[in-house]
Amino acid sequence: MSEFFQLIVSGLSTGSIYALAAVGFTLLWQASQTINFAQGEFVMLPAFLVLALSVKLGFPLWLAMPLAIILAVLILGVLFKRLVVEPMIKHGTLPLVIATIALGVLLKEMVKEFYSPLGQPFPSLFPQDVVTIFGAVISIPDIANFVIAMGAIVALQLFLGGTRTGRSMQATAQNPDVAQILGVDIKRMVLYTFMINGALAAIASILITPIYLAKFSNGETLGLIAFIAAIVGGFNQIRGALVGGLLIGIIDNLSATYVSAEYRQALPLILLIVIILIRPQGLLGTSEGRTV
Amino acid sequence: MSDSVLSVRNISKSFGGIHAVRDVSFDVEKGEVLGLIGPNGSGKSTLFNCVLGQLRPDRGEVQINGHRVGNMRASRLNKLGVGRTFQQLSVFPQMSVLDNIILAGQEHHGNMATRLFGPSDAGLTKEADQLIAFFRLEHLRDEMAGSLSYGQQKLVDAAMAFMAGPSLVLLDEPAGGVNLTMLGNLRERLETYNREHGTTFVVIEHNMEFVMSLCTRIIVLAEGAIIAEGTPDEIRSNQQVIDAYLGG
User: Which residue numbers delimit the ABC transporter domain (chain B) (predicted)?
Assistant: First the structure.
């Protein structure tokens, strides 16, 4: 029983990090109908920014991490919107999707070429100690990762639901034409959304990279899992992406222990197929009508 | 001309070889309720879009409260005191009725700092509650707008148009798809608002009974041009209008 509890906590920890990336998917979709297939690479890159700042440029870690988050907001938020999304969205969703796939490949190859093709150790923010709760051995990083990731998502929800800017961002996502007529600066609201996605990706990167090492290919799995989490939970709901991320984190951990480590990557895909067949709008999502 | 809330001068608009609006001019005075009617394809919507700056006319100009509209952005028009309702539903479905109405007024208050750090309701809850009460939506205040009936959403849409304290409200088919009970309520509320606040209305509507009972003056368009103008009684008995509607 204690092992089961241990796996659940560990699953919630990695799941909450998946949820950060999945929430980013839903935010971009809601604000600008952008499906960002470079999201995995968006989570991979900030860890290398931290390494470049700390290892190559000699910044202390406490400074390198916030600087990396700021750089991620600028590069993965502002520049991504200005240089990729704005020129491509005029041509429709499909060209934009292909452009994000290309961007993912570009980011991956750039890191491989200019930093290293080998996995790099990445410092953890937390001591590698454990605590025992109800007989289960839980690592401090697991607890801290969960608290920080959930804290970021709760803060985002409070921002969206409890501030004027958040309300304007919601309005932009739900009905941009009317929001604009009411005086909402929808371009700015969409830009804020991209910046928030950059920040969420950077936080996810700093939390998850100590577990897997910093590697140029980290985004492949992360992007896929975050995408599945967003669909499973409901692509148009932040809380859906949260539930999807947590669910996949738990399933991943349980299946690796109780089923087979070889099939652990297949289970999220099976879950995806089941959800698409039974409830295509996702567990918490709502159906979206589209005029064709 | 300068005393008019809305002044339309010699507006013409063509699409290819089709003359959608031909040399249309009219003024709307403060507190007036003007109806704009006409058969399908008469140019009402094109004219409406020219007035709102969403279409650029080929000729002529529109002034609202003395400001030339040209291709002014919709948000700027809103800040100039122009409210509008939409033919299609225009509420934010995943927000409460209260939040919808606050949103319609919040962009007129504060600066970037208050947007981020000021009260989330921009100090507008009391004002929004008054409008909610005015449109008799108190029981729906905290409901998600998307969960309301079509008629109720039309009322929310109307309430939103008044939140910024407009001097001119353009109502685009407010009666469309609304049941008779709700329609009576909407008309009575609009009449009361007009009487109490002196707000000017321009209404595009197909529902003749609604237009005739709400408006003080009516302009009839046919094939892009004004064919009649007058009080509801004058319009009812105008042979040219009858012919236009009956195809005579």
Answer: 6-248
